DNA sequence: TCTGGCACTCGCGTGCGAAGAGTGCCAGAG
DNA sequence: CTCTGGCACTCTTCGCACGCGAGTGCCAGA
């Protein structure tokens, strides 16, 4: 077990390193923090911390930098979440309030998060499966061609063009639309399959094929993994860590282009509060030198999707966590209003 | 006026520089291209080309690199558009064909373009103002709250939530929906304002306020500059030019985050064919060392939006132009089908 | 257990010299 | 007038040695 002072030393190392981006030595530590002990003592503590794997030196004769394990301890035990200041809160609210539709909300949120944290922001669209149906619209494009439009309570809109096996009249279409809506409107998407399974039976034989096709398209839309969407922004912030660069930024940009990777990344965070995954805790290789701070957000009590930021492991964890949490809270409010 | 051979020298310089990314000298030139003259002659030609501002040397004792003006001449006079090979064409078609909706088409197009050109791809969503209305849907969310959903022939869907000045009944809503659609369905968006201006008069006095609100929201949606959307991808490709990096990539990433900048960028290209803007020809400062290759695409004869790529001025122009043109063509086809 | 002192290790910046690439110019040939 | 070969010159790049400074580890003493 580490003594109280050693934990303080670790905390000081993390704070200094995050601030300066440079390995921190024993002397500098005692000068910048009032630890009340001499550099020599700190050196001993550092040796112990290194022994335990919390810090490391890039090369002999340099200062120490925290390891992933060190950051983990810092986040779990040594630091809290830094709340946003009132002016910041107001700024967040103002920034999000002008949004005209869901795309706009998401886009603004991404920009906001990227600006606040000065890192790469990721915002997932509200998940269909965790939303409820507001309306299902069917439009006839051609005699045997129908467009299905799905609208959720969170403002998300999905559409599909369907080729029908047989021509489908306007009246049948109106009938299907009405029946569909009366069954599913206001219900949770996860309940939709069981709510519509017997629907074809209500139709004439010649229309049943088409009705089934429409319904199966509707259900396909809800298949997890297909239905998830997200938006990212603030990639320019990656260039702020320009030293080691090309080698470090490349895989990150590549990972960010893979929606699947990102969705998995966000999906892994099960914690109801702010989740932090540090360095190698991220499954994806390209993100081994980054940390991901994420949290769920939702219009009501329940999370309908996640948002977060990706940054270097040497980030300001308390501040980032605070910003992420605050933004999630306000986005939830905005969604609830619309 | 430049002699034929000097133009060939310029072409050779551009080709070699694009290939190797390194300043090209007179000796290497005569070896790699059969110019039929000696290095000394080429040196004289180079001096002339430099005099005219087509090439430059980074420092006294290095080879020459093309200037923006040199690339411009190359693109205009010395190189054509390199057509895609049949296998490439098939690959493009296959890649785009699986798309389920417009977002998917755009997303796939971005990925495709980024992969083909190994550069940053930008795809604009079909412009509303240049599309026709497929359907307008109105949904009642609350007694005095309506959702407006707009669907275009290109598959684009926009939605807005409207707070009405007065409660609006289901029947009035249905009435408005029917009248709206009968007037605007199939018509061009630019004609919508004049088609609906007298619509409030058909309603009871108490509903007129709401109808006007709905209509003005509809018209707002069409305001150019608000209605444009785009998607970008392939930013990881920026890291391929890793030498000069941090300084060069930073402003580009920043510019790419500014939708406004990008829209202006694409908007400036008036040419009906493939447009190339080289280096300083781009108004935005951050893009001064990049070139933008763009082209309009559309479901019919007319362009509904643009797509293109952003890359270093030292890019393979013929190949990039070929890829951009080919992709635009196929995207147009796909849109026409759906 | 903490502290001050001291020797040691390394990374980093600097200066210098050799190597190499490429140019510009010039005189001569076609 | 144009092209060519030769030659001197310039400038960048690279390798290497050197010294400085930061930081460590260890030890003896309080």
Automatic annotation (TrEMBL), chains A, B:
Record keyword Repressor present: yes
Keyword Transcription regulation part of the UniProt annotation: yes
Organism domain of life: Bacteria
Residues annotated as domain HTH deoR-type: 34-62
UniProt keyword terms in alphabetical order: Repressor, Stress response, Transcription, Transcription regulation
InterPro entries recorded: DeoR_HTH, GAF-like_dom_sf, HrcA, HrcA_C, WH-like_DNA-bd_sf, WH_DNA-bd_sf, WHTH_transcript_rep_HrcA_IDD
Sequence ranges assigned to domain Heat-inducible transcription repressor HrcA C-terminal in this UniProt record: 103-321
Function: Negative regulator of class I heat shock genes (grpE-dnaK-dnaJ and groELS operons). Prevents heat-shock induction of these operons.
Family: Belongs to the HrcA family.
Protein name, entry field: Heat-inducible transcription repressor HrcA
Record lineage: Bacteria, Bacillati, Actinomycetota, Actinomycetes, Kitasatosporales
Encoding gene per record: hrcA
């Amino acid at each position: 077990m580490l003594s109280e002072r050693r934990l303080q030393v670790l905390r000081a190392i993390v704070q200094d390193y995050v601030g300066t981006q440079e390995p921190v030595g024993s002397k500098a530590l005692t000068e910048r923090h009032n630890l009340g002990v001499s550099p020599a003592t700190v050196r001993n503590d550092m040796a112990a911390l290194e022994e335990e794997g919390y810090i490391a030196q890039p090369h002999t004769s340099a200062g120490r930098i925290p390891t992933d394990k060190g950051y983990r301890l810092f986040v779990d035990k040594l630091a809290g979440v830094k709340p946003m200041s009132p002016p910041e809160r107001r700024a967040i609210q103002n920034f999000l309030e002008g949004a005209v539709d869901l795309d706009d909300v998401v886009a603004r949120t991404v920009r906001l998060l990227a600006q606040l944290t000065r890192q790469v922001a990721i915002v997932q669209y509200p998940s269909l499966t965790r939303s409820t149906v507001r309306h299902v619209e069917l439009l006839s494009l051609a005699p045997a061609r129908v467009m299905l439009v799905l609208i959720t309570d969170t403002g998300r809109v999905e559409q599909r063009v369907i080729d029908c096996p047989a021509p489908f009249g306007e009246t049948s279409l109106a009938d299907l639309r009405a029946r569909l809506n009366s069954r599913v409107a206001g219900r949770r998407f996860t309940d939709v399959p069981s709510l519509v399974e017997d629907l074809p039976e209500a139709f004439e034989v010649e229309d049943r094929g088409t009705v089934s096709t429409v319904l199966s398209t509707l259900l396909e839309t809800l298949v997890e993994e297909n239905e998830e969407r997200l938006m990212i922004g603030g990639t320019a912030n990656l260039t702020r860590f320009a030293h080691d660069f090309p080698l470090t930024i490349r895989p990150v940009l590549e990972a960010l282009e893979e929606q699947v990777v990102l969705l998995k990344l966000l999906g892994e965070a099960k914690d109801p509060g702010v989740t932090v995954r540090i360095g190698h805790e991220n499954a994806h290789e390209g993100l081994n030198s980054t940390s991901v701070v994420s949290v769920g957000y939702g219009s009501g009590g329940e999370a309908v999707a996640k948002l977060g930021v990706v940054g270097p492991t040497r980030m300001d964890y308390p501040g980032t966590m605070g910003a992420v949490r605050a933004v999630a809270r306000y986005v939830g409010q905005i969604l609830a209003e619309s």
